[in-house]
Design a protein that fits this description.
The structure holds 2 protein chains of 2 kinds.
Chain A: E1 2-5, H1 18-27, E2 32-36, E3 48-52, H2 62-76, E4 80-84, H3 87-100, E5 105-112, E6 117-123, E7 128-134, E8 139-143, H4 156-163, E9 171-175, E10 188-193, E11 205-209, H5 220-228, E12 232-235, H6 237-241, E13 262-266, H7 272-278, E14 283-288, H8 294-298, E15 301-304, H9 307-326
Parallel strand pairs in A: 1-2, 1-4, 2-3, 3-9, 4-8, 5-8, 11-12, 11-13, 13-14, 14-15
Antiparallel strand pairs in A: 5-6, 6-7
Chain B: E1 9-16, E2 18-20, E3 42-44, H1 46-64, E4 68-77, H2 82-91, E5 95-100, H3 108-120, E6 129-133, H4 144-152, E7 156-166, E8 169-176, E9 179-185, E10 189-193, H5 205-213, E11 216-220, E12 228-234, E13 244-248, H6 253-262
The chains are: A alpha/beta, B alpha/beta.
The structure holds flavin-adenine dinucleotide (FAD) and adenosine monophosphate.
Organism (chain B): Pseudonocardia ammonioxydans
InterPro entries (chain B): ETF_a/b_N, ETF_b, Rossmann-like_a/b/a_fold
Function (chain B): The electron transfer flavoprotein serves as a specific electron acceptor for other dehydrogenases. It transfers the electrons to the main respiratory chain via ETF-ubiquinone oxidoreductase (ETF dehydrogenase).
């Protein structure tokens, strides 16, 4: 039997990555049971849910949860424990592994039981794959986002069992761990909600700029195009390191990994660490003076040329086409919406 | 490592890892076991560079307030990893420890064991704060720091984008899709830092001169294999269609807007 730790959102829905981790767990052929500290989401195709109950587990508490999971492993003896490879999932399973003295494979796409288990994990954000072997009495792993769709997990069996007749409600078993009160030291004590607005992570269109933009002021024209397209502005690490943009705009391995409908990469070369942040965009338009730049050769569409000439022309063309309908008085380019 | 905190002194340890600075396409060695680094430079991970910067800023502000402070950087790696220690010293760290192991790449358990061996080699040194990257650049195991903290009985929070000292210890901030989470942990503590916490400085010439001469302490690591073993690295299949070039310069604008219209975004 495999245990799968799932996060439950405040509204009772399963947290990010739940579908992937369940698909990879089912694909092992082992029975799957779920562990949660919160509400039990509907429609889980599993026969048992272990609900962890403790005052220290009412909000994210990596040490307390890691310790609680060690105790659960000792009580129910699963073959392994999986979680989604979110920041939280990775952190909690590392706490579990450290406390139990077990190895841990993070960011896996597929896991195959055996002696040893074999697995494939994502490296460098996905431009490299690692095949590895895991030798352990209990297998601990986190599952990378997109694993279910990557084809590495033989998901058909899993999706079939999930999509047929509605699954019967699972048995819910409570588990009350014994936790040292000192573990309260690493617990969320306060939250500041995110400001409203188009978020880079979920924007349908992202207009992104790199070294080629040349200055902080140079982003005005990107902001303008993003506003016209209902999108957000992104940037490369060069822009962040030069202080042109805030790190929250950075796309890539150490920034945000996004999957918009359209990614417009202006003056970005397409280094590996940037590429992994935008490679899941449905369409990529590269604007670059260098026809050989990796971003250009990998993009769906490209315009060769100076972004400082191309972008204003594109904005003007958009205004010209829509202007006859709803913008009889064109606003001077570069001043609009600023 | 003893854990009594003296207010007039602040000791910070930063753990960094030497990693190849890979370009747009990653070449692999013939045996498929590693990245072919013959034509590559090396670097430390961006999260770790931010951790070094944060440590140096903490030391600077503590000194400005009249205290003494010391930043130690530690790496587990081959002798060449001294290059990354010296870079950190050129950014303002005070001293470096090279925990020597024969390979560029160790699995997570021996990495943590070797960091601990490095700490044990200076039993009289106590640290108020241990800084790690949330995850390392290429391997991205996201666990070495947590393993070390756990072995030392220290509180650890990863993914941190804000560190502030207050009366009771540290206030830590971490971003989530819903907003910011705040933690308050007592010292000594361990923290996994994320890029974005600061903008790392470029080392000044004086820093580079100092780093060239700075003595590094070398101690043996503990490279015995753990339970996770790399069998092979490979590149995933990429199936992208040929790029459609829409034109050059401003003249391409109508073709671009045709595409935007087709995609339904204008
Ligand atoms: C571990 C690690 C993690 C990293 N994480 C990230 C990350 O999360 N995100 C990230 O972006 N990078 C990341 N990097 C850095 C990455 O390797 C590259 O250095 C960075 O992405 C390059 O940014 P750039 O494309 O803006 O600059 P460059 O590589 O310098 O490219 C600039 C491009 O602009 C073009 N150009 C110049 N002028 C113009 C003009 N006027 N008009 C049009 N085009 C022009 C040039 O032809 C060139 O293609 C990471 C690096 C490491 C080692
Ligand atoms: N070889 C190493 N030497 C020193 N510190 C390391 C090493 N490997 C990992 N670390 C530290 O542990 C963090 C997490 O690494 P990882 O578990 O590989 O993702 C890194 O950001 C470093 O701070």
């Amino acid at each position: 039997m495999l245990l799968v730790l799932i996060d439950t959102e405040a509204d009772g829905t399963p947290g990010p990555g739940t579908g992937d981790v369940l698909a990879v767990a089912h694909a092992t052929g082992l029975a799957v049971e779920v562990v949660t500290t919160g509400a039990v989401p509907d429609g889980l195709a599993v026969r048992r849910v272990h609900r962890l109950r403790h005052d220290l587990l009412t909000d994210h508490a990596p040490e307390a949860l890691g310790e609680a999971l060690v105790q659960l492993l000792a009580a129910v003896h699963p073959a392994g424990l999986l979680a989604a490879a979110t920041e939280r999932g990775d952190e909690v399973l590392a706490q579990t592994a450290a406390r139990a003295g077990l190895p841990l494979a993070t960011r896996c796409l597929a896991l195959c039981p055996g002696e040893p288990w074999s697995l494939t994990r994502v490296r460098s954000g996905g431009v490299l794959l690692e095949d590895a072997e895991l030798t352990a009495p209990v297998v601990l792993a986190t599952v990378a986002p997109g694993a279910a769709a990557s084809g590495s997990a033989s998901a058909p069996a899993a999706s079939a069992s999930a999509s047929e007749a509605p699954a019967p409600a699972p048995d819910v078993v409570e588990f009350v761990p014994e936790l040292d009160p000192v573990l309260a030291r690493t617990r969320v004590v306060e939250r500041v909600p995110r400001a409203e607005g188009v978020s880079l992570a979920t924007a349908p269109v992202v207009v992104s700029g790199g070294r080629g933009v040349g200055s902080a002021d140079g982003y005005a024209v990107l902001e303008e195009l993003a506003a016209l397209l209902g999108g957000a502005v992104g940037c490369s690490r060069v822009a962040t390191n030069n202080g042109w943009r805030s790190h929250s705009d950075q796309v890539g391995l150490t920034g945000t990994q996004i999957a918009p409908d359209l990614y417009i990469a202006c003056g970005i070369s397409g280094a590996t660490q940037h590429w992994v942040g935008c490679m899941n965009a449905r369409t990529i338009l590269a604007i670059n003076i260098d026809a050989e730049a990796p971003m250009v050769t990998r993009a769906t569409y490209a315009v060769l040329g100076d972004l400082h000439e191309v972008l204003p022309a594109v904005i003007e063309e958009i205004r010209a086409r829509s202007g006859t309908v709803d913008r009889p008085d064109p606003v001077p380019v570069g001043v609009a919406d600023r | 490592m003893s854990t009594t905190a003296e207010p007039e002194r602040r000791d910070v340890l930063v753990c960094i890892k030497r990693t190849p600075a890979v370009g747009a396409r990653i070449a692999l060695t013939d045996d498929g076991l590693a990245i072919d680094t013959r034509h590559l430079g090396f670097t430390m991970g961006p999260h770790e560079e931010c951790a070094v910067e944060e440590a140096v800023r903490i030391a600077e502000s503590h000194r400005a307030a009249g205290g003494t402070a010391r930043v130690t950087v530690l790496t587990v790696g081959p002798p060449d990893a001294a290059e990354q220690l010296r870079y950190a010293i050129s950014m303002g760290a005070d001293e470096g420890v090279l925990v020597e192991v024969p390979t560029e790449e160790l699995d997570p358990e021996p990495t943590a064991a070797s960091i601990l061996a490095g700490l044990r080699s200076a039993p009289d040194t106590r640290y108020d704060l241990l800084l790690f990257g949330t995850d390392s650049a290429v391997a991205g195991n996201a666990q070495a720091g947590i393993r070390v903290a756990c072995a030392l009985g220290l509180p650890m929070v990863a993914g941190v984008k804000g560190i502030r000292f207050d009366d009771s210890g540290l206030e830590l901030r971490r971003g989530t899709p819903a907003g910011i989470e705040i933690y308050r942990v007592p010292l000594p503590a361990a923290v996994g830092v994320k890029e974005g916490i600061n903008v790392p400085r470029y080392p000044a010439v004086t820093g580079r001169m100092r780093a060239r001469k700075a003595p590094l302490r070398t101690v043996p690591g503990e490279p015995a294999a753990g339970g996770l073993r790399t069998v092979a690295l490979r590149r995933p299949r990429e199936d992208r269609p040929e790029t459609v070039v829409l034109g050059s310069g401003a003249a391409a604008a109508p073709a671009v807007v045709d595409v935007l219209a087709e995609l339904g975004v204008v």
